[in-house]
Amino acid sequence: MKPELLQALHTIHSADGWVSLGTVSKGGGPHVTPVMMGVNGDVLLFSLTGKQKKRNIERDQRVCVALSRAEDLAHVVVWGDMQLRHDAEAQALWDGLIEGAFGAEGLAARRRTLSLEGTSLGVMTPRRYRIYKVS
Q: If the chain, 135 residues long, is cut into consecutive pieces of 10 residues, what is the mean pLDDT of each piece?
């Protein structure tokens, strides 16, 4: 991930904050929902529930995520591809995402075993981005 994108994400996003994730619906239109996001190396991580957005990602991996600050209109928009993961490494990453947002007690209260039917870890590889007024 480019350093300027990483810096902008760390500046505008908090671990317990929500972001807007856009997927491509069956009809080709946008499907936008709030989700939790984390940053790990060169990828963005998402806690994903809800059947529709996961079906959309299975069919078309192109996604877009938007983060914003209301007080000054600063925002970051990232476009990329997302994979749904449920393996042991994904479980460890998901646990880290939730613990980072809510602490160890919060993780204990929210612990889930990843599965396609339940909660999935979305792993997004950024392809392009736009940063506006983030400093």
A: 92 86 95 92 90 94 93 92 95 88 85 88 96 87
Q: Retrieve residue 122's tokens.
A: 């979305």
Q: Hey, what are 20's tokens? A: 């807007």
The H-assigned helical ranges of 81-130 are 88-110
Spatial CA neighbour of 46 closest among 62, 32, 35 = 35
Residues contacting residue 55 through CB under 8 Å, at least 6 positions apart: 26
Compute the distance between CA of residue 12 and CA of residue 105 in angstroms, rounded to an integer: 25
**What are the start-end ranges of the E strands in 25-119?**
30-40, 43-48, 62-68, 75-85
Could you say which DSSP state residue 8 is in? H
Q: List phi, psi (to 5°) of 124.
A: -105, 130
Instruction: Give me the pLDDT at residue 98, please.
Output: 87
pLDDT at 108 (0 to 100): 84
CATH for 3-132? 2.30.110.10
